[in-house]
Structures are given as structure tokens and as C-alpha cells.
Amino acid sequence: MGYQTSNNEANPLQDPVKFKSFFNEFFPVLVVFARRYVVDDEPAHDIAQEAFITAWEKRLSIKNLDDVRFYLYTIVRNKCLNYLKHIKVKRVHEQEVSKENDIYFETVTIEQETFLMLKKAIGTLAPKTQEIINLSLQGLGNNDISEQLDISVNTVKTMKRRAFKKLSQQLKDHFYLFFI
Amino acid sequence: MNRNQNSKITKLFVKLFEQSISSEELKVLNDWAGSNAFRQHLLHKMRKPTAFEEWHKEVIAVRTEESWKVVEKAIKANRGRQIRMEVMRYAAIAIMTLMVGAAIYYFSAKEPVAVQPQMAKNVIEPGSSKARLFLDDGQVINLEEKQAADYLEKDSSKISVASGEVTYLASRDTREELIYNTIQIPRGGTYTLVLADGTRVYMNSETELKYPVRFSTGQRKVTLKGEAYFEVTKDPEAPFIVEANNSQVEVLGTAFNVKAYADESVITTTLVEGSVKFSNTQETLILEPSDQTVFNTLSNKVTTNKVNTDLYTAWKDGYFWFKNESLEDVLTRMSRWYDFDVFYKNQAVKELRFSGKVEVFEDVDILIRMIEKTTDIQFEISGRAVIVQ
Predict the structure, then answer these.
(1) pLDDT values of chain A reduced to their tens digit, one per residue, 180 residues
(2) How many other CB atoms are found less than 10 A from the CB of residue A130?
């Protein structure tokens, strides 16, 4: 699934220091993922925590970073489905049942991976450019951005163009090895 | 689910947000969604310009720090439990072995050794990924310092260096002349090498491997000093041969471990799967899975036993795993990883037997204390030396 080329990145589950930074980056994403299943905040946190603990304990069998994330999504999904069965919601919504569907899992995973990737890519831009991109992703037009940041519309346009160019270049690099 | 397709779709969604998506690519997304309700729903969601911002708000609201404390605590508690269990196992085995050991100890100890419980501040740290790569033209690359980088050999084979791993991509050059590289792993290091045929070699500390950057047809031959675990890519046309100390291990496609350190008089070959042929000047043996041959280079004797292969390959997964091994062997293995020297004030303790499994990234103190707890042995650490009292 991934934007990290597989074998180049060490498995964060084998190194305590890397594990923590991987946790900081990926835990929030995993909670959002869990909330696509259990909705409530509290169980979503609990389940994501349990998943990380399980993953740490079984760390040796996973070879690369893409697999680690995919493995965590899978654990969380299973735990969430168990949880939903366990709380025995009186009215079993059609929606609840359909969450067992594999395509649902696929779409929720793609959603997280897309945004995680975008977040990482934006994180590499210069602070001012990041601001512009973030505003743009909030749905603001060039005029609004120019007003809010007190810069000319042309500057906004140029910076946006450069930023998106850089982002798509990164995207190319990330995927290059993956798809050859 | 098809993960390759998923990453393609993920990529297209990112492009959608980066406003660099083409109309053909948009069509790919539409085709992918088809009439599936879930996919349609995602597509719809992603087409909202504010989708990322909304997701990001959710991410920021997550209580990451607080959760880390919970996870960290669970991991530590668990590790504590594991260590306690290991210590008990040590204790059980140490009691039995101590009965043998103690007799030797009793008769050989001339005077009582003063017990010094304090331990000097030590500088001994676990090993890490380190290696030196010698290219054909004599260039030396210090891999420890290197971030990702690529090199070309003179036949234009590509060498990719990334964290802890070197990968070879053979050129299409068809000349039969072979170009050799050598990789050297110092004490306190480990490294992974992927050869041009895809064979994966995990190298332990104090190990050297010489190999062609591109294999010739008909045979794949490498030369080993030290210890390495091989996952050989199958190729019935070209046997894979590991040469070590005048012995040869020949395979077609399999996973096995060879331990052949120059300062040890034995070569140990442990077969995990597949089949290998071990031969030296004296004899030839075919090994089956779980077979281990030990060739003693002094006596020229070969013995074969069935073993639990996990014990002998645990190092590649980050463990020291000992089963009924002498203190001398245990400390020798540890000294390669942590890079320390061992001195024995009393030779008899070398024969005490130990079992246990410990993570290699543990502080050396933890390991040494585990041994202290289960025996009468005291250790003193001074600089890079470990003195066994």
C-alpha cells in the first residue's frame, strides 16, 4: 500500500527509538481509522493502543514499513468488529453489518493512506508555503488566501504552483520504486 | 484486498488534492469506484476540497501523548515479565549445571575471590548496523555513516545503499569476467546484503563476505569468514556455494546459517529449509532441514545433529538465544555484538552452562546481571573489558 519504498525503511517495531517516532506519526491516523468503525472516541483510542502493543510484541515477523501499517489496520479492524459485536447494539444497523465488508476496509484504508501521505508531503514544504497549502486545502480561494496572509494574489498563485509542483515531484519519487 | 491496486488508487487521490490529476486518471478513479457504494462514498468524500482539513482536525484531536504513556507502560511491564521468566529459566538450568560447575569451581579455586558488587560506569553499547564495503577499484565505503546512496561498478551493476542494507542490481553486461566486492562487518555490527540474484544474506558481527557483483552463469560462489544467514534464491541451473575455511556448502535454493569464525576451530552449518551439501577435503554430506553439521577444523571431524534451528538463527531477528551453552561461548558471542573483551580470573567458570533468550538491544548490564543473579559469578566492567571474577 505505500508511499515508502518497501525494503529501504527499517521496521520501526524492532527499535525502541524508531517505535516512538513511528507511534507519534501513525497513532493518530490509526485512531481516525478506528473511528470509521466504532465511531466513539474512547474505544477507538483503546483499540489503537492495544494494536500498537500487540504489534510491538510480535514485531519480528514483519519485514517493512508498509506491511507494519497494513498489519496495524488489519488488527484494528478486527478488534473494532469484535467490539461492535460485543456491545451488542440493540438495533443492528445495516451500516454496522456492512462494516464487515472487505471493500469498506479497503476504502477506509485508502482514505488514511492518502491523507497520511499528503500530510507527510506538506510537512516537507517551507513554513510559509505550508500555510498557503493548508488554507487552500481548507477550501479557500486565492483571493481569500491573499487577504488572510496579506500577500498579493500573484504571489499566492506562484507559491501554490511551486508547492504543488514540488508535491507531485515527491509523489513521483515515492512511487517510483514501488511501481517499476 | 489488492494492495498494489490500493497504492495506485491512493496515489491518484493524492494527485487529486495536489491538483495535478489528469482527466484520464480521474477516469481511472471513476472506473475503480464503479457502482460500489463504499467506493462511491469515498470518491465523493475525497472530492470535497475540505476533506483533508476535516481529516486533519480529527488527527489533531487524538490524544497521542497520553496514549503513548499507556502503550509504553504496557510494553515495559511486559518486558519486565519476560525478563523475570527468563531469569527463572536461567535459574532452573543454572542449578543443575551448577552442580557440575560447582565441583570444578570448588577444586580449582585456590583462594576465595573478593566479591565486588559495584560496577564501574561502562562504555559498552549494543551493536548496530555498520559495515565497510570494498569496491572492485579499491574504493572503501563506510556504510555506517551513509544515508541512502547509489554506486556503479565498472560493469555498470548498480549498488544501492540504504539503512542497514546493501542491494545489488546486476547490469545486463554479458562479459564472463567477474567483478568482486567485499563487505566487512566489524564487532558490534550487523548488516543485510541482497546479492544480484536476489539472495538475501544477514551478516553477523565480525564477518566478511566476498562475492561477485553479478554472478556468472552456471555457478554462484561467495566466500565467508564469520557468521551469516543465507536465504538463497532458487536457481536449479546455478548452485549457490558458500566457501568457508576450506569447506564448501552448496545449495540450490534454501535458507541456512553458516558460522565459521577464524578464532573458533569449528564451522557450524545449520539448515532451516531446503537441502544443502556440505563438503570439505575429507567428506561430503547432504543435510536435511533442522540438520546441523559441526566441522572441527583441528580434529577434522564432522558431526551431524538434529537441532532447533531457531536457536542458531535468532541473532538475525535480534535475539541472543542460548541453550545449554558454556559461559565461554555465551560471552564470546556477546563480545562480538557489544564489542568487549573478556578476561577470566578463574578458568573453571568457563564451563558453566546457560540457557536463555535476550534481546540484543538490551544494555549489556542487564545481560550480565542476569548471569550474576543465577550464579556465584561476579563481573567487573572496566572500559571495554569484562572481567569474570
Answers:
(1) 334 433 445 567 767 777 888 899 999 999 999 999 988 889 999 999 999 988 887 765 566 677 788 889 988 999 998 888 777 554 455 555 578 888 899 999 999 999 998 888 888 888 888 888 888 877 788 888 888 888 888 888 888 888 877 777 776 665 543 332
(2) 14
Q: Which of residues 53-72 of A touch B (CB under 8 A)?
A: 53, 56-57, 60, 66, 70
B354: closest CA among B83, B97, B84, B82?
Answer: B97
Q: Please tell me if residue B150 touches chain A, with a CB cutoff of 8 Å.
A: no
* Residues 28-47, chain B, touching A (beta carbon < 8 A): 36, 38-39, 41-42, 45-46
Q: Does ipTM exceed 0.85?
A: no
Give B65→chain A minimum CA distance, Å.
8
Q: At what angle do helices B23-33 and B3-17 cross, to 10 degrees?
A: 130
State the total domains in chain A: 2
Pairing of the two strands B189-194 and B379-382: unpaired
Question: Are residues B162 and B116 located together in one domain of the fold?
Answer: no
Same domain, B312 and B324: no
Of B45, B58, B162, Cβ closest to residue A8: B162
User: A18 with A96, same domain?
Assistant: yes
Question: A48 and B74 in contact by Cβ < 8 A?
Answer: no
